[in-house]
Amino acid sequence: MQNATQNSIKYQQELLVKVERNNRMVQRLSEKLSSYTYEPKCPQQFEKYYELNKSIQNFKKHQKQVMSKIRKHELDLSDANNKEVANHLKRFKELERDFASYLLD
Predict the structure, then answer these.
(1) Are 70 and 14 in contact (CB under 8 A)?
(2) Which one of 1, 22, 67, 87 is separated from 16 by 20 to 30 angstroms, measured CA to CA?
(3) Superkingdom, according to UniProt (predicted)?
């Protein structure tokens, strides 16, 4: 039983670290996006730029909600199928992919 508890705690800590690391990465991406070196040069890039900014803001809002729930212990991280954290991590991957697409255009 103690081994299961230790695994659960380890899993919770890994999720927390991953969520916090993703948040720092999004902050860096946001800073890069607002840098003059990544300014849009054509109408399609302006559209992608605004969509990317909107996605970043949505991610940050969701990040605050997830972290608030974690701190208040409203979110049960021991559940391996926690949909809220899984969705948050999925949003990060999509945001990262969209940012890479924006840079490559």
Answers:
(1) no
(2) 1
(3) Bacteria
Tokens 């695994």, located at residue = 7
Q: Which residues contact 49 (CB under 8 A, 6 or more apart)?
A: 33, 40, 102
Cα–Cα–Cα angle for 18, 20, 22, rounded to 5 degrees: 70
Q: What is the pLDDT of residues 66-98, one digit of tens each?
A: 888 777 766 666 554 478 888 888 999 999 999
* pLDDT tops 80 at residue 65: yes
**Full 3-state SS string of 4-51:** HHHHHHHHHHHHHHHHHHHHHHHHHHHHHHCCHHHCCCCHHHHHHHHH
pTM for the structure as a whole: 0.77
User: Is the Cα dihedral 77, 82, 87, 89 positive or negative?
Assistant: positive
